[in-house]
Write a structure and sequence with these properties.
This protein is an alpha+beta fold. The chain is built from 2 helices and 5 strands. The longest helix is centred in the middle third of the chain and has 20 residues.
Length: 95
């Protein structure tokens, strides 16, 4: 049994936005692959929340790579994992 995984509003919005970009660029097959990878990663972090790299200066925030062009940021709570947002890695890096 693992942690409950919840999506913030921003996570839902950025997930859909990146999915739409993939749809336009590469089609339905790639969107489905993106979704499968995302669900697989959320399944992994629900069982092993510390598996991905910690974000610098953010004790409970971690960065999971979904694909070379997309990452997912999440926060570890006491009994849950909160998906904070998805990030297109081709954008300017966050500071």
């Amino acid at each position: 049994m693992g942690y409950n995984v919840i999506f913030s509003n921003e996570a839902s919005e950025t997930f859909e936005s990146i999915g739409q970009q993939i749809q336009v660029r590469w089609g339905e097959k790639e969107v489905n692959e993106f979704r499968k990878r995302t669900y697989k990663v959320t399944e992994i972090i629900s069982k092993f929340p510390l598996i991905f790299q910690q974000v610098h200066n953010r004790e409970n925030v971690r960065k999971a790579f979904i694909h070379k062009s997309c990452s997912m940021f999440y926060r570890i709570g006491d009994t849950y994992i909160e998906i904070l947002f998805f990030w297109d890695n081709r954008q300017e890096p966050m500071l």
